Amino acid sequence: MASVWQFFSHEGDYADLNEAAACSRLAQALSIATVDGPTHDETDWAAFDELGEFFRKSFPYVFEAAEVEKVDHSLMLTLHGQDASLDPVMFMGHMDVVPVVPGTEGDWEHGAFSGHMDDAYVWGRGALDMKDQVMGVLEAVEYALRHGWEFRRTLMLCLGQDEETLQSGARSMGGLLARRGVRLHFVVDEGDYLVTDLAHLGAPGRHCMTVGLAEKGYADVRLVARSAGGHSSNPYGGTSLARLAKAIDRVASSPWPAELIEVDRTMLAAIAPYVTEGPLARLVAGGRASIDANAQEIADAFRRDPQLFPLVTTTVAPTMIEGSSRQSNVMPQDMSATINFRILPGTTVAQVEERVRELVDGLGVEVELVADVCNDPSNTSRADGAGFAALREAASRYFVEPGDGSPLPLVPSLQTGATDASMYECVCDGCLRFSPFVADADEVDRGVHGTNERITRRAYMQGIRFFVRLIQQELL
Ligand SMILES: [Zn+2]
């Protein structure tokens, strides 16, 4: 039995939402295998076109009212509001899903693309990440239009095609809006699909939901040690493997500074009223002023915590090594290692590369940036803007602490992975990553990009209610 339901409130709202029909549409959307290929040319775009057709058939009010633009295989829908002077709100998402890991197909209780639905769950790849939110948003807009609600503010729905790989769809749509001079009021993209337990931060019995305001950057740096190889009986000067190992060690054991960045500080300020235990209690007791005054002490404490350290520093993970000798008596020839960095906002890919060059200087190792996968950290969206307040207001009705019924706080967070949301930073200072479609932590850990991805029907409907409410609040 899911335990995330204990946080739900007002499930009776919009009583004419048809659960069976909505869940069956989600199941059908999950059965269409919009899987990312390794490249644009190796992707089955017919599946994306099929999904687009399915949207059109399922949401007649939306597609009747919207201006629909296809940007490559991504979809941009504009529902014009009556007051053109108001900046549009955007609900966004991605239509693509990651593949099922080869060899694990049989581990699925119901096939990843079977579109299976039972009394409790809708199953399939994308049930959490993130056809639930894409379909749920469309359900909510369809509901609003079917009830004759007239939008004062324009609503845009931007659905990307390759968030999990190249992000080319969202990049194109963001660029298009920038060239048109559009500014967005705020953007809502997927978040972490969780209700988060705050016990670890010293607030036992309290929970929150997170709103991602920024994303860490990403860099792969390759270290290359060249050698002609030869017989291992004369390894004068060391083998390529020895030089490479020394280089990896220098990079991996030279930590980046720990810093409490702005997102961390707004996060701590949001939870400070609930922190009653542990070392953090004293450091955040006076709210933002204490947090600023104790910033370095908090950052250092986070750095020592296995769960929290990615929030305060650039992380360094050697992940791949290539070129080993096949025989113990033969020296290896050219070898390479790849080191993956997740870069804290405030630092750049160029600075990471520069530092690696300095660290391995003199070891006879070359440094190459794997340029096509690198991204600087995103901007940091506003926690004090209209978007955050709007999410807080809608969420306060639907997600509450089971003990006292108080609304779960919405807490700013730093995302450690990349999403399409950053592609709209050029037209918006409030790109918010938030999912009202939630699951228990073990479901998210196992299901997102893993096996037996599924969402409870009850959580799916609660997410739809949230978006209907948000529309009522912000667009009418
Ligand atoms: Zn996603």
From TrEMBL:
This is Carboxypeptidase PM20D1. Residues 214-364 form the Peptidase M20 dimerisation domain. Pfam families: M20_dimer, Peptidase_M20. It comes from the Bacteria. Belongs to the peptidase M20A family. InterPro entries: ArgE/DapE_CS (IPR001261), Bact_exopeptidase_dim_dom (IPR036264), Pept_M20A (IPR047177), Peptidase_M20 (IPR002933), Peptidase_M20_dimer (IPR011650). GO terms for molecular function: carboxypeptidase activity; metal ion binding. Keywords: Carboxypeptidase, Hydrolase, Metal-binding, Protease, Zinc. One of its GO terms (biological process) is proteolysis.
